[in-house]
Amino acid sequence: MSEITLDPYVSRYATRARGMGASEIRALFAVASRPEVVSLAGGMPYTAALDYDAVAEVTDAVVREHGPSALQYGGGQGMPALRARLVEVMAAEETAAHPDDVVVTTGGQQALDLLGKLFCDPGDIVLAEGPSYVGALGAFSAYQARVLHVDMDADGLIPEAVEDRLTQVRAAGRTVKFLYTVPTHQNPAGVSLSVTRRLALAELARRHDLLVVEDNPYGLLDFKGEVRPSLRSLAPEHVVYVGTLSKIFSPGIRVGWLSAPGPIRDKLVLLKETADLCQSNLTQFVAERWLGTQPWQAQVAAFRELYRERCEAMLSEMAAELPSSCTWSVPTGGFFVWLRLPPALDAGEMLAKAIRARVAYVPGSAFHADGQGTGEVRLSFCLPPPERIREGVRRLAEVLREEVELVEAVYRGRG
Length: 415
Ligand code: PMP
Known about the structure:
By secondary structure, the chain is of the alpha/beta class. The chain has 14 helices and 15 strands. The strands form 4 sheets. A 7-stranded mixed β-sheet has the order 2-10-9-8-7-3-4, sandwiched between helices. Strands 11-12-15-14 form a 4-stranded antiparallel β-sheet. Helix 8 (195-208) links the parallel strand 7 and strand 8 (212-215). Helix 2 (24-32) packs parallel to helix 13 (347-356). The structure holds 4'-deoxy-4'-aminopyridoxal-5'-phosphate. The site of 4'-deoxy-4'-aminopyridoxal-5'-phosphate has 14 residues, from helix 5.
């Protein structure tokens, strides 16, 4: 059978959908999900650590006590009692919010989609860290926004680089619709924005009237429990905050939220209603009761410790095994390590070989809108247990050693 299938509906698709297609990487991941492969690729939380008796109790009580409402439609903004609980989650990160400013969404991902829909016409410019969360790049590009990357380093996004980009864009007579950033335990780079830079970015947002989208799924998963000031707390009128219960409770219940300045919130509620009328009422009730009756902060602390241990397993094995010409980020929380490969290696080209060696990762180019990142790799330590992580790193190290030898042989051959 031919590899290429012509799509007979293509002429009917909207322009924004024509360019969309599954990447080669997605095809490789079908193979990577086999049990013999250690996947350091996905960003799936370790949901097996949840207390399932407690989840069952909560769900049972919701259905028995609130069945008719929980199985009914709800309001477009989300259930008021849940919004009040989500404000408590934000308070755990010292970010003040009011339930009226919150819009419940189908995970953080829908929040990003709604923001793309609200702000982006085709060709509009959005700034984002380079590398950036692949789901955000997908959401914004679905509205044909053009993402321009801004440099980051071990302390996160560089405010001066944001200002340079803004100045360039404005000098060209264009506007920046917003800056998208994951300031804490960034996906994929595994770094956090320093406090000094948070203050600088907040000041810059005010001075340049820049709108910032702050996406914060990993903030509470700091290995030491450290809390950093959110951008929303520093410049509330210039920041739209995106939160999610996916990493601190469950991604399966699909509860995320936005906390936004009033006029933006009003538009988002209308967009949410056109997207799906309302969030699943059943999972809103479950999330509300979970947060209201269970020791969720203790669960978060348990997750923190579990991920800290897995991260430590990954970092120590990397230090022991990887070629000395590799460098990587040292996360203080979250799910990811960002690995820079030895010169001349291409992470995309190497992936098929890695999967044959029974280890999977995501090539860095997936996290760039402009083809950068070919010599970089995202490794996740969230799902496999520590011993599997170590095994995965050893397999990756073996592939890298072979690749480095090949490159050296080619250079020697050239004399
Ligand atoms: N933002 C970032 C940075 C993420 O890593 C993720 C999950 N991978 C999301 C948003 C979306 O997660 P969810 O839709 O499950 O809330």
